[in-house]
Design a protein that fits this description.
globular; 4-stranded antiparallel beta sheet; 36% helix
């Protein structure tokens, strides 16, 4: 896959891998055509993909390097099937961000990351064994969100489903940052 820039991408997002994170909560009050699992045909597939990664977490290795403007991550596996799952997960999370279909919103960190997605730039490229992701922002608070999200994704790999069920605190806002 070619490296690309997206103004509306997280990771993790979001990355990560950004998160880790396809465990979504119903968007109560929006009905079947809302943005909850009932109105999102990709939800079940994204959740199953994430669960597969958690079930194979012992086969995943991850490196996170904090930078002045965000993070550089490398997430890989020697198992070719797991490597493909990692790549597919990143692509599905990119689509969720672009389509404004947040996931894992009961967790304050994930909700906040999606609120600031328009301030995050992600460049990623497939590797032979997984994916390399660079997430950056020019906003000091969003940089802290990116870095915290990367830490949490690593915790998902370390602790599995137990970590997914935890809420994660927001980083403190830098002095002079807005509301």
């Amino acid at each position: 896959m070619n490296a690309g820039h997206w103004g509306m991408t997280v990771a993790l997002a979001v990355l990560l891998l950004t998160a880790p994170s396809a465990v979504a909560q119903p968007d109560r009050g929006r009905g079947p055509m809302g943005k909850g699992p009932g109105g999102d045909p990709a939800f079940a597939a994204d959740r199953e993909l994430f669960h597969q990664l958690l079930r194979h977490r012992d086969a995943i290795r991850r490196e996170v390097k904090k930078t002045e403007h965000g993070v550089e991550t490398l997430t890989e596996s020697d198992d070719p099937e797991v490597a493909i799952l990692i790549q597919k997960h990143v692509a599905s999370m990119k689509k969720r961000v672009e389509d404004d279909k947040p996931i894992h919103r009961r967790d304050p960190l994930f909700a906040e990351v999606f609120r600031h997605a328009d301030k995050i730039t992600v460049v990623y490229e497939k590797t032979e064994k997984g994916i390399r992701v660079t997430e950056t922002s020019d906003d000091a608070y969003v940089v802290k969100l990116i870095q915290k999200h990367a830490e949490v994704v690593s915790l998902f790999i370390k602790h599995g489903f137990d970590e997914v069920h935890r809420n994660h605190e927001l980083p403190s806002k830098p002095k002079g940052a807005g509301p």
